[in-house]
Amino acid sequence: MRLSSLVMLSMVTACAAPGPSSSGTDVQAVRNAIDSLDQNVQRWFREEKVDSIVTGYYASDAIVMNPNAPAAKGTDAIRAQLAGYYAQSAVRLHFTMASLFVADSLASDQGSYTLEIRAKPDTTKVLMSDHGNYVTTFVKRNGQWRAVYDIATSEVPLPPPPAPAAKATKK
Q: How do residues 91-105 score in pLDDT, each as one tens digit?
């Protein structure tokens, strides 16, 4: 409990600090870089640019954990998962950062997302919608920030289980 309070305090402090942190990291510069990545990846999702998402947003060793799907580990698995989504539907993803924690070459943001899966070719027809929370951890390698862990949790309740089948009575 005490550790989680310290982590939360650190996140709030990092979120509020616009200049250099005690480690010398310019928090505002990191926020700007991640905001830019976030805007790009949301556009790439709309435009179905799988390669841009995989190489421009994620690190090669990234792990993506979405609700109701197995974890996609690494570039090939992430690419395959995205290609599977786009093969049958159009994806509309929007997310908003609520807090950011920065320490040297590591940053983690937390926020909320909305997701719509739309029919192809009629993208006006919404097949499924979801909303929830996410945490994305970024790492700076070779001067570039990339997502290394991307985890989403849905707030949409699962449908109720089917009612048990009625037993036939013997006559």
A: 999 999 999 999 999
Q: What is the mean pLDDT of residues 121-148?
A: 95
Within a domain: residue 100? yes
What local confidence, expressed as pLDDT, does residue 15 receive? 44
Full-prediction pTM beyond 0.70? yes
Tell me whether residue 84 is in a domain.
yes
Domain count of the fold of the chain: 1
- pLDDT score at 167: 73
How many other C-beta atoms can be found within 10 angstroms of the C-beta atom of residue 51? 11
Is residue 12 domain-resident?
no
Residue 125 belongs to what domain range?
22-154
- CATH number of the domain that residue 48 is part of: 3.10.450.50
